[in-house]
């Protein structure tokens, strides 16, 4: 790939180190498939999910490819009883990207909140979408938090408190 994608330019401009990896664009969508294509564990491939609350807030939620968000935890974090995944058209309108390879940084407006699951901070390296299917950014958890201005919270462990 010759041209630099906006997500990579953003990291370059902030001097945040990352590695760019490609996989076949014919790979079936999903974190598990990306993990297999690149030789990583599914947990290391980050799902970037866009949720909206009845308080008119839209937020980016990042969890490992093999994880699911605990609804009660998410409601606490967003301070809303009514939280749903955004429909694909709204995700595209908000992020500029289609579901499947949404980069977790560079498109957020000021005040937009992003959250990353605390368990991902234990990983050595994480994979995130570039905005282009078949291209992945490998980045340390610390640099992901820095780039996405994410708040580290517990979204996936029922035994632990949210914050």
Low-confidence stretches: none
Which geometry do the CA atoms define?
globular
Strand order of the largest sheet: 4-2-3-5-8
- CATH topology (fold) name: YbaK protein
Beta-strand percent range: 15-25%
Q: Helical percent range? A: 10-25%
Give the SSE order as H and E letters.
Answer: HEHEEHEHEEEHE
Task: Give a verbal description of the structure.
The chain has one domain (6-153): YbaK protein. Helix content is 25%, strand content 24%. The chain contains five helices and eight strands; from the N terminus they run H-E-H-E-E-H-E-H-E-E-E-H-E. The protein has helices spanning 6-13, 31-38, 71-78, 88-95, 141-148, and strands spanning 19-22, 46-53, 58-64, 83-85, 113-117, 126-129, 135-139, 151-153. The strands form two sheets. Strands 4-2-3-5-8 form a five-stranded mixed β-sheet.
